[in-house]
Amino acid sequence: MTAYPAWSPAPRPGIVPLHPFGFGTILGRSFVALRQNPKVLLGFALCVQVVSYIVLIVATGGVAFASFSRLETIPSGTDDYDAVMIGSIAATGITGFVLGLATAALGVIVQGVVVSEVASAVVAEKPTLGEIWRRVKPVAWRLIGYTFLVTLAALIAIAVVGGLLFAVGVAVLPLAILGGILAVLGAIPLSLWLTTKLLLVPAVIILEHASIRTAIVRSWRLTRGRFWPTLGIVVIISFTFGAIAQLISIPTSFISLGFTTALTPTGDPEPTAIIGYIASTLLTQVLTLFVQCVAVIVQSTATALIYVDCRMRHEGLDLDLQTYVERRDAGGTGLPDPYRENIGRTVGPRPAQYPYPPQGYAPPQGYAPPPGYDRPAPAQAGPNEAAPPAPPAPTAPADPSPTRWSAPGDGS
Asked: How far apart are CA 355 and CA 362, in angstroms?
């Protein structure tokens, strides 16, 4: 037996160790998890988002071009011109709205696929797209419904505040302006607070198959005590990809401007210049769109990891995951989903871990326990056993150089 207790590090069969995560672990693994299952994360999720947004832009632009081009054949100022103008605006708006809803629904499904895949990667499983879809399919409409519910609530809140400000502005315009400024400033912390508290709703719906109301309550509870780390991760990821998008858009805008100037030095529009401007603009939009799609994947990955971390801290999910991994590696089949086991369980506070990591490694020579650490009690002998020998008392190390030293000029 050694005088120092040792503890083994938490197993790490998947992309993260099976114990509550630190801030850096969640943030770092949110970026590197793309390599775990690139066919699903980069292949499916990224392609679906890019294609859906491109279809949205092209279809809406095509309807707008076809509608507004009719105005060239109608004299301006006539009733027909006004009717065609209103119809063109309505057709373009309806097309954009419908396709926007479809794109948002696809985006929600993509987020669900990413969350499900990351949850599997935590226990070192790499499911196929079909297996992930079978997990997400039963709750897909709940995800879409929750997203539209949040969007509707935001629109209603904006409409109510805007209506009140308009009513005040009719009577006292300066007061309405001041109220609008205060409303905008107040909406920023409110939106960050609600976004953080409701961040885990999609993960709860997907992994626990919970209803929308139950998922909202669960997310509110699980983020209790983890608000600031969760908010920090969301803000850092958002700012990071926002900065990357700006770094891409600004140089390409200058390139587009220079390309157009080189083709039309006199300023007269020419077909080649117009084509070059459109091509450079589309390139900028595609690159920016690619960055935004990767940002959605990384944010969804972070959401899944935050969910796992919060459940480990509140409900001891790491114990269920370790049990699942051990039984699976031992050849067990038909095992229950660990994320749907012991939902809502309450665990007591965990003992502080001894700050010397791996089990089986002897502590370095001269290493002393931290202050306040209680050594384990010595083993007690049984009724028919001899008492165990007492550990030797620590002795000071012998002086390897017994030679005495005297100061210069000292006669002794």
From this structure: 13
